[in-house]
């Protein structure tokens, strides 16, 4: 057999193994509310090729490719356990098993590693929590996609309604079409039908009521069978407690804002300060996409090296807030054509750091430039550290953080020498450390952090909503603290 034939045979074998994993992953998700991950990447509802690519991606962060032949035994071991709702990371299982020298079988090791999710220890499956989207723009439609994707088990979060202003002419059909197709994020994964008679969009079996209103105080959500729902305001129209309290209508239990909150509204970055949310808090903010991008790596650096001061320069994709062609705008410069210019503008991300990291004494300044790309931005974080270090030490630290720390869902790590912004469309991490661009000299470190300011941010919002709803299930093996 030639080398070419041997390589192809190997591929076909791995393809067959990946194919056999799909029904196991699906059954665990539907029947036990178990989400199978690989280095923080969900394998639920993915294709054979996606499973193989996710395994291969491990070489960029762990140094070597992870084979499906290595992870399949762990997956089989999970099916034999009395598992409760949880997230199980096959990549972490394989890595920790490799470093364990006790000679345990895969089955015994797996049972021990996920013991917190089995038998008497397991979390009981909760009833689904109703969710309402107030607004249905760029972020709203991505939140809808993520919510629909996560209802496969019948538990967790359930998108019940969307509130929008009535538009003229085939409003429902056009909104459904925008959910079905997106110029940046591609086709919706599933089926969408429109029930115009009842003002509903039906997506993958989820009946989503479309409520027309331009005043939140006029809506009674209980009239639609909605109870104790989490309402996600993605309009940005109200940002303080007084304004957002208008949403606390019959049927609504909590309000989550997808923009920086003002006044005493808590600004939450999942992975960093989500555990500070008080159980009785009804109104919270998920801060901005840029705040979510810089705060996790800033915390990772501060915890390890200390940070004395810093500056963040954001090179941000243009948004709907800007004009396509030169026209009047309330803000300076934003009236100039977004697809034709780089536009210097302000960012509140640096000042928002103090809300998410109140113990950080360092002064962080910031500025921003909007550029002619439709999605994915980069934050350049220039830090003066508390001690001198080396480039390799910083990279090793951030690589470990992305793999094994509590921030592994927020921070990704890439070593590709020719990575560009479009490579990160659809990333579910808050930010991605570009190893090749990282610069370190003595106590000065400059990090280049990519982030999908639409999809990565939406993923962070959903994590916060899962947390406050009580359906954010624990991950096993537990990350290193």
UniProtKB/TrEMBL annotation:
The protein's Enzyme Commission number: 1.2.1.12
Keywords, ordered alphabetically: Oxidoreductase
The keyword Metal-binding belongs to this UniProt entry's keyword annotation: no
Pfam families, A to Z: Gp_dh_C (PF02800), Gp_dh_N (PF00044)
Class of the enzyme per the UniProt entry, highest EC level: oxidoreductase
Listed InterPro entries: GlycerAld/Erythrose_P_DH, GlycerAld_3-P_DH_AS, GlycerAld_3-P_DH_cat, GlycerAld_3-P_DH_NAD(P)-bd, NAD(P)-bd_dom_sf
Glyceraldehyde 3-phosphate dehydrogenase NAD(P) binding domain sequence ranges: 129-289
Xref: SUPFAM superfamilies: Glyceraldehyde-3-phosphate dehydrogenase-like, C-terminal domain, NAD(P)-binding Rossmann-fold domains
Entry's Gene Ontology molecular function annotations: glyceraldehyde-3-phosphate dehydrogenase (NAD+) (phosphorylating) activity; NAD binding
Family (UniProt): Belongs to the glyceraldehyde-3-phosphate dehydrogenase family.
Protein name (record): Glyceraldehyde-3-phosphate dehydrogenase
Source species: Streptomyces sp. gb1(2016)
Lineage: Bacteria, Bacillati, Actinomycetota, Actinomycetes, Kitasatosporales
